[in-house]
Amino acid sequence: KAGVTQTPRYLIKTRGQQVTLSCSPISGHRSVSWYQQTPGQGLQFLFEYFSETQRNKGNFPGRFSGRQFSNSRSEMNVSTLELGDSALYLCASSFHSGRTYEQYFGPGTRLTVT
Amino acid sequence: SQQGEEDPQALSIQEGENATMNCSYKTSINNLQWYRQNSGRGLVHLILIRSNEREKHSGRLRVTLDTSKKSSSLLITASRAADTASYFCATDDQAGTALIFGKGTTLSVSS
Q1: A67-106 burial string, b = 16+ CB within 10 Å, else e?
Q2: Looking at the complex, does the CB of residue A34 fall below 8 Å from at least one CB of chain B?
Q3: Along the 114 residues of chain A, how does pLDDT read in single tens digits?
Q4: Are B48 and B31 in contact (CB under 8 A)?
Q5: Percent helix, percent strand, percent coil in chain B, to nearest 5
Q6: What is the pLDDT of residue A96?
Q7: Candidate from A35, A37, A42 with C-beta closest to B2
């Protein structure tokens, strides 16, 4: 089975722009979670989607949004980018929701905001 | 918010030595997990220990859990250069659908 894939792997954007990141889960997995990793705040949960429904949301401003499609692929969007949004964005997939120990992580998208 | 706090933040050892990392957490848990991350890449699940377990082994990994002290430790025996990575402990949030990570321990193993 192919693993979790994330595109693009690297991205450079300018403050004020918006960005969309994509995550393709392992085939058959219906849950996709997103995490942000920064040197200052570490790894923080953004949101989880299961069968196209947002099941859980972390403590992030409304500029961060996401969605999941019927094929379980997920996208996250960040609008009005700030310098502090520079981070590694990781997604993880699992078959079930609520079984974090069954999650597989993708390689991440490195976003740099200048 | 961070649930776990790893100690030490950084650890440098020689190949063949053992590496011990500690993690403390704040709230009651159902389980605790350890992850490895190589050089800012994806996370790899290493081991899960449930709240009713005190010790668990997987290959060269040994994890202990002390729920009375809200702490866990990860021991890597006979370290190799390939073990160089960051290690994170993680627990579930209240909903059980999100991981709350500690800040991690960066392990450097030199040959």
Answers
A1: ebeeebbbbbebeebeeebbbbbbbbbbeebbebbbbbbb
A2: no
A3: 789 999 999 999 999 999 999 999 999 999 999 999 999 999 999 999 999 999 999 999 999 999 999 999 999 999 999 999 999 999 999 998 888 888 999 999 999 999
A4: yes
A5: 5, 55, 40
A6: 87
A7: A42
Q: What is the 3-state secondary structure (H, E, C) of A48-83?
A: EEECCEEEEECCCCCCEEEEECCCCCEEEEECCCCH
Q: B105 vs B46, B82, B86, CA distance in Å? A: 14, 15, 5
For residue B101, give the chain A residue with the closest CA: A43
Asked if A36 reaches chain B (Cβ–Cβ under 8 Å), the answer is: no
- Token pair, residue B93, equals 């949030």
**What are A95-109's pLDDT values in tens digits?**
988 888 889 999 999
What whole-number distance in Å separates Cα of residue A13 and Cα of residue A3? Answer: 27
- In Å, how far is A48's CA from the nearest CA of chain B? 7
Q: Which chain B residues are Cβ-neighbours of A55 within 8 angstroms?
A: 95, 97
Cα-Cα-Cα-Cα dihedral of A84, A90, A95, A101, to 10°? -90
CB proximity A10 to B under 8 Å: no
Distances (CA, A) of A90 to B21, B55, B108, B111: 24, 29, 23, 31
> From the CB of residue B35, how many other CB atoms can be counted at a distance below 10 Å?
23
Alpha-carbon distance of B95 to A58, in angstroms, equals 11
Please report residues of B whose CB lies closer than 8 A to that of A60.
Answer: none
